[in-house]
């Protein structure tokens, strides 16, 4: 071993030197060179830092730098996150997205253009005017639809979600609120009256039946009991005169 190389290192180094830092790493750790001013020193890490990707070899695991426009990468030719000003698309960092795609400034990726989508129209509403369906001849009816998919930045905007058109109805008078209330009150009173009448008739019927039953019972009590007819055979029996 070279005199400047030590095997009693710290921080995951297998071998190291006072000037260059780590020269080799312990198993499963990645070796990477860090620049400190004009000097580079070796360090051993459990995972590669941002801007590097890891490669494993039988003798050593190393961290290699990503491309200049790539912030994090899986390999040198496959980026997973781009630096500011670039948009990620299929592992590459682009300044402008291809045709048919748009730049998503939130994710910094090239994504598909999404157009607005709406549901089917609802049926037309009843013909109305000033919130009423009576008292007029010409009014308006309305139908609506809902947005089921909002568009992306470059997608087709959403159309109107409501439509109105003129309509004609047969003129009819509106029923006055007071009159309608009066009619309902009269119907309620009539119904209560009919129910009361039926109840009184039932009560009279029960009273008449009870009176007839009591009268029959009184008649049975005041009528004299019939005497039992004598037994002629007993009256004609011979009298014993022996004594």
Low-confidence stretches: 232-237, 239-243
| Overall shape | elongated
- The CATH topology assignment of one domain is Hormone Receptor, Insulin-like Growth Factor Receptor 1, Chain A domain 2
CATH architecture of one domain: Ribbon
| Radius of gyration, in angstroms, nearest whole number | 54 Å
Question: How many separate helices?
Answer: 2
Main location: secreted
GO molecular function: heparin binding; signaling receptor binding
Organism: Struthidea cinerea
Protein name: R-spondin-3
Verbal overview:
This protein has 243 residues and is α+β, with helices and mostly antiparallel strands. Among the domains are: 7-65, Ribbon (Hormone Receptor, Insulin-like Growth Factor Receptor 1, Chain A domain 2), CATH 2.10.220.10; 69-112, Hormone Receptor, Insulin-like Growth Factor Receptor 1, Chain A, domain 2 (Hormone Receptor, Insulin-like Growth Factor Receptor 1, Chain A domain 2), CATH 2.10.220; 118-147 and 155-168, no CATH class. Helices cover 21% and strands 33% of the residues. The protein has two helices and 17 strands. It has helices spanning 177-222, 232-235, and strands at 5-6, 13-17, 21-25, 30-36, 39-45, 52-56, 61-65, 70-75, 78-82, 87-89, 92-94, 101-104, 109-112, 117-118, 138-144, 147-149, 162-168. The chain has a three-stranded antiparallel β-sheet with strand order 1-2-3, with no helix packed on it. Strand 2 (13-17) and strand 3 (21-25) form a beta hairpin. The radius of gyration is 54 Å and the shape is elongated. The chain starts with a strand and ends in an 8-residue tail after the last helix. Mean pLDDT is 81; it is low at 232-237 and 239-243.
